[in-house]
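Supplementary Note 3. Input sequence used for the single-chain structure prediction.
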Amino acid sequence: MREKLSAFVIAYNRASLLETCLRAVSFADELIVIDKSSTDDSVAIAARYADRVEVVPWSPTVEETRAFAVSLCRHEWILFLDDDEILSPESGPCLGNSLGEWNADILTIPLRHYILGVHDERAYYWPEVHHRLFRRGAVEFIPTVHGGVALQSDRIANIPVDSGVCIHHLSYRDVASWIERTNRYTSRPDRVQSKGGEVNLIRFAHDQIDFWMQRTADPSCNDYPAAVALLRAIYDMVDRLKAWETERGLDGNEMFQIAQKNLTLATERRQARAGVMSQNGTRQFDVAQTVRVGERCEAAPLQNSLKDMELRAIVVQLRATEAHLRERTEAERKSTLNLICTRNELDDAIVTLAGTRNDLSETKVTLGQTQATLRETRVTLDQTRTTLGQTGATLAATRETLDQSVANLTEVNLELARLSGSARLFVRQYLPKLRRQFSRRLVHARIGQK
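The predicted structure, written as discrete structure tokens, is reproduced below.
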């Protein structure tokens, strides 16, 4: 039996994209839209395609709304998207009919970012995959910006990036929209912050530019991949600066109020001392008015307010100094730890060198013995070489003797061949004659006996 799928989309003022987004995910058995109090036609568009539309109060990021959206889903499998994310046409047949075949609780889907209106596979963001489809309970949503997906299962399957299944993320039209979201996301206290806060701000900025450029497949520094890498580094820089601001307890609004009141009081004092005259010199504060202004400047409530503002300014400065001292203390602590580690490493190196020295001494003795053995071997080799030379001479003499013997054997063979020929000739020609003569003699002998 086919397992059913619920899908939800979180929307806010995205009427221009929402219809395409919802049509691409219409293969789901249940489609829910959570609208964050849009002021455009997003709710009306959602009502035409979704099985359920819920309007909730606006919040600056999607992470705060996802847990509520999951609670509305009825089916075992859940797919979630934002209103600027559109599934590819290949996604429906793959995701809608074969969820039970993946043997997993979570599926990752490739994500194609369109930053400045363009998707470029040379840029730092490709390939990128997101955990967007899961079995109920396998994912928990928390409100942390850019870290709101907490995995509760390790049974994860990855849809291949070359399968055609993907999410097209039509995210940032221009640099201004990137900066706006950067400011909005990095202003959230609960967010995933950029790493590398232990280094100074300038070093951090250079490191982030280098980091995102290293993930870029195009070596050019004046093309689209470099531009989006720089935008990504800017996000990290802004995030780090806001963390730096928070660490020092800086409150710019309060400091502006203090500066404004100080300037106002200074102006009033100056006017009280010198009086105020129009440009043509026809009007001037009288002495009594000047005294009253001076008395007002020196009044106790005004003085208390000034002292209170000065004290607040001092507190802010002390907070900044405290944060700076904490950073320096932490840096010195880390430096001390590094020195201790270095000292331990040096001690280990000294022990290792001592052991190496002993090994070298033993090796020297072994080398001495080896040299003696080599000398003895050389003598033996020289003797062997002499013996081999003598043996070679003997073998040469033996070879000459053998050659001579072979020559003699050849002559003997020739002589034997001649004798063999003579014998055959004798047998063929004379043996019959001798046989006849012997027979005649034998006959005469028998006749004589008779």
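The chain has a mean pLDDT of 84. The first strand starts at residue 5 and ends at 11.
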